[in-house]
Design brief:
Blueprint (H helix, E strand, L loop, with lengths): L18 H15 L4 H10 L12 H5 L17 E4 L2 E5 L6 E5 L6 E4 L8 H17 L1 H20 L16 E3 L6 E4 L3 E4 H5 L8 E3 H16 L2 H51 L2 H23 L11 H16 L2 H14 E8 L6 E7 L1 H9 L26 E3 L1
Parallel strand pairs: 5-9
Antiparallel strand pairs: 1-4, 2-3, 6-7, 7-8, 9-10, 10-11
Helix pairs in contact: 1-4, 8-9, 8-10, 10-11, 10-12
């Protein structure tokens, strides 16, 4: 319950121990101290429906945190009755513009003893600290290598700002989606993709992983055989172009008809108003005026809601696509041109879903291509009036009638 001070202001900073949450804290420390990994602890808590901090899911990083910075569940000194303020500050990184944390000197820390809030005894706290130290020693070489790698990449970005345009870590980075939970499929280490939700929280049942090189090979073969197969893709594009242009012409014709009707209504209203002003008004004239004005409002409302006009797509776009695909497929076979070709391929993929197959270790992959992106890519440097910047925003999915846009790999 909130209290007010003598000035009538709410008293801030007061804390009390939640006994149920305190038992969860003690459980986490006991499990970690006896050798259970943070990832396993997080999965067990999530499986039991125990809410994490701020009612979020538990993850291994939530528990581990950063020992030196005092962040993370296992480093929270409040659990041993010590409240620490001003341990770190946030500054803007001039290279990236993002906020980054910096540890303040220990002399700047403000430490307050709050023994009434203590829920972890010294024995358990020290056991957890000993295990952290043991793990740090065991993986010291790996940690150093990772930090050196980050430092090297930072130095490279500083030396060559163009590298900060962030070329994807791999051909498929950011495109892979778990077919079970909808979360991202990400690289684990350097060699295998796995569902991040399953790995981090254990709340997704998709435990299948797939080698990076195997998946990229499947995608490239699928693109060449299906999405980038000139004949099949060109037919889909031709059908789309014809339908889009047909709808454009119909919409324009309908709009022109209604605008002519508006002109006619305006002339009729003017004539009737003149007739009334000359003393020839009657109830019939007034009723007709109301009818015309209602019709005028109806047409104006419909025209106001009509979508913005989309320029017609050049009818030769399919032929342009065939030529560009041929050049792209050729570039994929040359090492010095592969990166540029890979960037073009990424622009044609909307997403790839990965779902466990019926057999052990099998993963089914479905690629979703974005026809709007295909058309935009085709338009680039193609001298095709009416195509580039056409405003097309149709993403083709299964059942939409465009065979190359969605297929299994």
């Amino acid at each position: 319950m909130k209290r007010l001070d003598a000035a009538g202001e709410p008293v801030r900073g007061e804390r009390t121990v939640n006994s149920a949450q305190a038992e969860v804290v003690r459980r986490v420390f006991r499990d970690f101290a006896v050798g259970i990994s943070p990832r396993t602890i997080a999965r067990r808590l999530n499986n039991e429906g125990i809410p994490g901090p701020d009612s979020t899911l538990w993850t291994d990083s939530t528990l581990r945190g950063h020992a030196k910075r005092g962040t993370g569940f296992l480093n929270n000194e409040l659990y041993i009755g010590r409240l620490v303020w001003n341990r770190q500050r946030y500054v803007k990184d001039p290279a990236t513009g993002k906020r980054v944390s910096r540890i303040n000197p220990p002399g700047a820390w403000i430490v307050t003893e709050v023994p009434e809030l203590r829920i972890i005894d010294d024995t358990l706290w020290q056991a957890a600290k000993a295990r952290q130290q043991s793990l740090a020693t065991e993986y010291a070489t790996v940690i150093t290598a990772v930090r050196d790698s980050f430092a090297a990449r930072a130095a490279e970005r500083a030396a060559n700002p163009l590298n900060a345009t962030h070329r994807p870590r791999s051909l498929l980075s950011g495109l892979l989606v778990c077919g079970c939970c909808g979360g991202p499929f990400a690289l684990r280490g350097q060699d295998r993709y796995g569902c991040s939700t399953h790995i981090m929280t254990g709340t997704c049942a998709n435990s299948r992983t797939i080698r990076r090189d195997a998946l990229e090979e499947r995608v490239l073969i699928g693109l060449k055989d299906r999405l980038m197969a000139p004949e099949a893709a060109a037919e889909a594009i031709r059908a789309y172009v014809e339908e889009t242009n047909r709808r454009n012409h119909t919409r324009r014709a309908d709009g022109e008809t209604e605008r002519r009707e508006l002109d006619k209504i305006a002339r009729t209203i003017k004539e009737l108003v003149t007739q009334v002003e000359d003393g020839g008004g009657s109830r019939a004239v007034m009723a007709r005026l109301r009818e015309l004005e209602a019709r005028e409002d109806e047409i104006n409302a419909r025209l106001a809601q009509a979508p913005a006009d989309i320029p017609d797509i050049h009818p030769n776009v399919a032929d342009i696509y065939v030529r560009k695909v041929a050049r792209l497929a050729e570039a994929l076979s040359h090492t010095d041109e592969r990166d540029e070709a890979a960037d073009a391929i990424r622009s044609l993929i909307e997403k790839i879903t990965l779902t466990p197959g019926p057999k052990r270790g099998q993963i089914d992959a479905v690629l979703y291509g974005d026809l709007a992106a295909i058309l935009e890519w085709t338009a680039q440097n193609a001298n095709t009036p009416g195509l580039g910047g056409s405003g097309v925003s149709v993403s083709v999915v299964a059942g939409a009638g465009f065979e190359p846009a969605t297929f299994r790999l």
